[in-house]
Amino acid sequence: MSSVAVRNHLSTFLETLVTGDSQALTSAAHEYLTRAEDASELIGQVGLIAMHGDSDGHTVLTLGAASVLTRWLIALRHVLGEESSDFVRGVPLVVQALLAAIPAVQAGKDAPRNYPEPLFPSGLSSTKSVGDALHEAIEGRDVTMVERLLLGLYGTGADYRTISIRIYDGIAQTFQEGGHALLCAIGGAKVLDAVEWGDDEPNYLHWLAPHLTSHAEEPAWTERVRGFLRESQHSLQSYRTRLSLPKNEQALPLQALIISTAPTPDVLQGVYDALIKNGASAKAVGAVIALAAANLLQNVGDGDRELFVRATHGLLFASATHQVFTQVQEVEALPLLFTAAAYVNALAQDLNGQTSQGTATRPGTVGGGLIASALLESLDEQIEAEDVAGALATARRYVQLGHDAPALISAIGLSAARADAAADQGHTLQIIQAAGHEYLSWPQELKTTSIDSFLHIALRAAALAKRNPLATH
């Protein structure tokens, strides 16, 4: 990783970026990446600046997804036999993400870095914990207090997991704008991952605080989640002291329950039974909720992109919830599983009767061969031709032949360089990253369960996205 080189050349690169000249940006990115400078870190450094000019959160979410997709290119280069130091293949993807970030970078480049005075835990009353104070500030929509509390934790030297669990606890039983708060918490952390956190966390906390205190109206089912978890018979505390090995297969019945016509209380009880009574791990429950969200999308045809994107927010939120439990295992985060399951169930009810017809069948292109590189080349051609059925058949063949799965997801991600990230607010990149993460992180003990729907969603997102006429691939 070339951290010093990226930082030293960043000001020159930013001058090119803010001009909005796509050809100049492509040349500059090509020059950077031919020096073997890390594409993911370059995106991350730009993301830190964009945080100061990104009020709605979509730019940082787009950059966070792009940073992950570029990291996955390492697997693709290995399968294609390219030099490990060759980052040029990622140029179109980097350029597409950065073009979408131009307005936020222009606004954030010279914005003042004014943070409020941190409120350290020692400054709270003896009867109030940081968690209590953060809950109160989030519920009261006090952006400044949220930021002060988070900066106070950071100032004590608390590691990112400690700060993250406080964030997740604070928003676990709230829900507005398609789960925007959690998506921002996870997406912003991806940007920080790209720059290895270091001293940059205050940027993230300053940007995140307003997104944790949304003023949007909550759906009715959120109070049902809170009411369910307030009841003593639904205590989650036994998860803290569990000693037995997880029985992750017990999470599988949730898949059908969540996308059925079952009412919210039944879904919440199903999550509780799987997690507490039947011994599944939080990670397995999160993975199965994400699979339910992906399977729900099979009922949305290709002819209505707007409906498809709206419905994919269930997958984005469920995937973000699953990712929480790859970082932490604390009981305080467990309510997120109930919120995610209730949201996907509500989407299923909402989509009932609103599903759209698929597009007319296009002539399929044939993806043949046995060699990984040949199959991936066919896959790219099929995505370019919007042949989703052919692309899925090729992807399945690739997997069945035992080829490297991360390289497959990476190839799909690279194809997203054709999408207009600015026009779709980065949703294509976010969907592919979320579906790819779920496919690659599916629990091994549940491997007999079909997870092809994750591949299908990623391919649909890539193939049917609005194209950028300036994109090069």
Show the helix and strand layout.
Blueprint: H1 3-8, H2 10-19, H3 22-34, H4 39-50, H5 58-80, H6 91-108, H7 130-139, H8 143-155, H9 160-171, H10 180-194, H11 201-212, H12 221-230, H13 254-258, H14 264-277, H15 282-296, H16 305-327, H17 335-351, H18 372-384, H19 388-400, H20 405-415, H21 427-440, H22 452-463
Provide a descriptive summary of the structure in words.
- Helices cover 62% and strands 0% of the residues.
- The chain has 473 residues and is an all-alpha fold.
- The chain folds into four domains: 3-108; 121-212; 221-351; 372-463.
- It is globular.
- The relative contact order is 0.12.
Gyration radius, rounded: 22 Å
In total, the number of strands is 0
Give the integer mean of the pLDDT values: 90
Strand composition percent: under 5%
Order of helices and strands: HHHHHHHHHHHHHHHHHHHHHH
The N- to C-terminal Cα distance equals 25 Å
Q: Which parts are unreliable, with pLDDT below 50 for 5 consecutive residues or more?
A: 357-361
The total of helices stands at: 22
What's the number of domains? 4
Oligomeric nature of the chains:
single chain
Helix content: 55-70%
Structural class: mainly alpha
Shape: globular
Sheet of most strands = none
